[in-house]
Design goal:
The chain is mainly α. The chain has a domain of 87 residues. It contains 6 helices and 2 strands.
């Protein structure tokens, strides 16, 4: 269900809570991996330390700025996003082809239209 909610968040307006959670997990993973790279580069390759430290600074800043922005904007409920995509029923693709087609053929049931020509124009009556 989490993956569906993130997909709905990508296709509709607003940001839902599962999308924020996934974004935070990804950013924290990035921060931890850069921290580990910084710790390893201190002893292994000291020339990389300023570059990795700057990347770590950017990742931490990105994490805080994105979360600050999302607190200012707010989040949207996933049910509201489903309604925006699929209408009030909230079900996508659950109807089979047989349920979508009417039970009888509408062409056989319809009465033919008659066209009346008048001086003001042509009118169609059913």
């Amino acid at each position: 269900m989490l993956v569906e909610d993130v997909l709905y968040g990508a296709l509709t307006s607003g940001v839902n809570k599962p999308t924020v959670l996934l974004l935070n997990v990804a950013l924290i993973g990035c921060i931890f991996s850069l921290g580990a790279l910084l710790a390893l580069s201190i002893n292994g390759a000291p020339a990389l330390v300023p570059h990795v430290a700057f990347l770590l600074f950017l990742a931490i800043g990105l994490f805080f700025l994105i979360n600050w922005f999302l607190t200012q904007v707010g989040t949207v409920d996933t049910a509201q996003q489903r309604n925006e995509l699929f209408g009030p029923s909230g079900v996508a693709g659950s109807l089979s082809l047989a349920e979508k087609q009417p039970a009888s053929d509408p062409l056989q049931e319809a009465t033919p239209a008659t066209i009346i020509s008048t001086s003001t124009g042509i009118k169609k009556t059913e």
